[in-house]
Amino acid sequence: MELPTKLILLVLQFILISFLPKTSAQFQFLYSKCGNINYYTQNSTYQSNLKTALNSLSSTPRVTNGYYNFTAGQTPNKVKAMVLCRGDVPYNTCRLCIRDSAATLPVSCPNQTEAFGYTDNCIIFYSNNFSFNAVKERPRWALWNNKNVSNITGFNNTLTSMMNTLQNKASLGNSELKSAAAQINLTTTNQTMYGLVQCNPDLSRFDCVKCVQYLIFSFFSKDFVTPTFIAAGARVITPSCNLRYEIYSFYGNLTDVGPPPPPVPVSNRSSTPQVEINQKSHRSHSTIVIVIPIMGSLVLIISIASICILLRRKKRKKSATNLNKEEIENFNSLQYSFEAIKVATNDFSNDNYLGEGAFGAVYKGKLPDEQEIAVKRLARNSVQGDVQFKNEILILTKLQHRNLVRLLGFCFEEEEMLLIYEFVINKSLDSFLFDPIQSSSSSMPWETRYRVINGIARGLVYLHEDSRLRIVHRDLKAGNVLLDTDFNPKIADFGMAKLFNIDQTQSVASTMVGTFGYMAPEYVLHGHVSTKSDVFSFGILILEIVSGQRISSFKIIGEKPENLLTFAWNKWLEGKAWNIVDPTLPSAFSTEILRCIHIGLLCVQHNMADRPTMSSVELMLSSSSLSLQVPSQPAFFTRSHTPSNATSQGNTSIRSI
């Protein structure tokens, strides 16, 4: 029975191809990208699976709100394919775009296992190595209007505000549609800005936010924005999400996308329009003659393919359900109800307020078993907060070290995002170092400061080398170091941390996060991230601990204005390094203190290759007999050196390209 079935399908496909209008010459992608890595051979299993997947995309009787995906075959010849129509595109236009895209993409990328195509109306992507419900950031394509805008600051602020609103609205969509559009009047130019944001519906809220956030920051790369130029319109497209803005209307009603029109009786099909694009009021008799056999062929193919699709969907759904169940079970022990946390914090009362972080307020609480907790309540509708929430859960649940703050659990319900940590009684390091009331020798003696330096170093060694993940913190500063009862340090706030492969040494960040003054020069200037980025931040932290002053507001009475790095380097060269030291610290520890200044200067050298690793730093701190290299000139950061597209207010965190 198998051979006749294949013959029937081949004949039907031949009939369909013979009668279909030749659209390949008319249809053209605005952009297409071929994998250029792996190839399949003609008449191979992979090619057969690819045809099956693409036929399924183009012949499925219904595309749920413009999105459809299909998997064909088994590893290593498995093919995963997906299509996504723009959120406002009518159903029939969407179907035509999918049909033509599925027919054209294999021709554009012959014998390649991965390909991506984009038109104004739809996106198509297939590969042997990706997951439907995960963010796929590459390939990425961008197109922008070379026309400049007159009021760069006002336009930029409006654009940022609109995109933040749209990404939140799109991410809150359902499993059928995650798309949002808006228009905002530009008061300075009497123009209107139009924007559209869309995610694949099978992405979670967090992954949608993550994907769109990646694209938003792409706007602020040097290609889109400079101090003297910002594009009047642009679009950025990836397989998982896309966004666009223009100063003219380019989208329709987002409610236009819906199920196909009701079936038309066979007797009336000859008079039913089959194509909406470029449709005219008159039809020739020859067009009707062509349409009838095409529809007949489609009906037969769809009938046969639908059975296969239903069977595959059933199998895939069962597999997906099991996977989600396993994931949920892994996190069950970490989930708290919102009601339980409300009770624990006395409904987030002011009496339990501990402070404000980059993404929301922190409250003290007490669980029924009397365990004290700290609850970070992330601000609603915060895109960065969404990303941080997921990042902290994924990272901290896999890490256990005495010098890292411990995540006890989380809550995500009623539009609330809460992170529950162990309560660290002595707050953060900056409250002792930089508070003029508390920063005395009695509250923070040198022995305590030295213990803090060593503890932070051990925590970083664990993150960089000893944990099962390789992690760069990216926002190490005194405010993100908590102190327990015995003033042992615990590194906190992993919302900006970046995960590396075990054998990976550095990468280029698509999103710049951190705090000016603590950020390494190669990161600020070029986006290069590595473990040496944390080493630089650690060097700044050592100098702050020794001097008792912030990098951002350093000042020595009687000395000319300089930043901490400049001052420390000059005094080191003059042989007057003790001038850097907090006056409250006794000279009895001068040897140990001066050695720490030496190590700090080694950590902040401009060339990251000259900086030591954290394991070397830990060894330098623990062994006074180990000789130290002579440091070279450090990187200098003052406000005049701050990049023109960045903002800094004291010790505030920044998120920009």
Write a short abstract of this structure.
Its main location: membrane. This protein is of the alpha+beta class. 36% of the residues lie in helices and 18% in strands.
How would you describe this structure in keywords?
657 residues, alpha+beta, Killer Toxin P4, Chain A, Phosphorylase Kinase, domain 1, 4 domains, 5-stranded antiparallel sheet, 25 strands, 36% helix, disordered N terminus, disordered C terminus, Kinase-like_dom_sf, repeat, receptor, nucleotide-binding
Q: What is the strand and helix layout of this fold?
A:
Layout: H1 2-19, E1 31-34, H2 45-59, E2 67-72, E3 79-85, H3 91-108, E4 115-118, E5 122-127, E6 141-144, H4 152-171, E7 178-186, E8 191-199, H5 205-219, E9 225-226, E10 229-230, E11 234-237, E12 241-246, H6 285-331, H7 338-344, E13 353-356, E14 360-366, E15 372-378, H8 383-396, E16 407-413, E17 416-422, H9 429-433, H10 446-466, E18 470-472, E19 481-483, E20 489-491, E21 498-500, E22 506-508, E23 512-515, H11 521-526, E24 528-530, H12 531-547, H13 564-573, H14 590-603, H15 614-622, E25 653-656
Antiparallel strand pairs: 1-4, 2-3, 3-5, 4-5, 6-11, 7-8, 8-12, 9-10, 11-12, 13-14, 14-15, 15-17, 16-17, 18-21, 19-20, 22-24, 23-25
Helix pairs in contact: 1-6, 2-3, 4-5, 5-8, 10-12, 10-15, 12-14
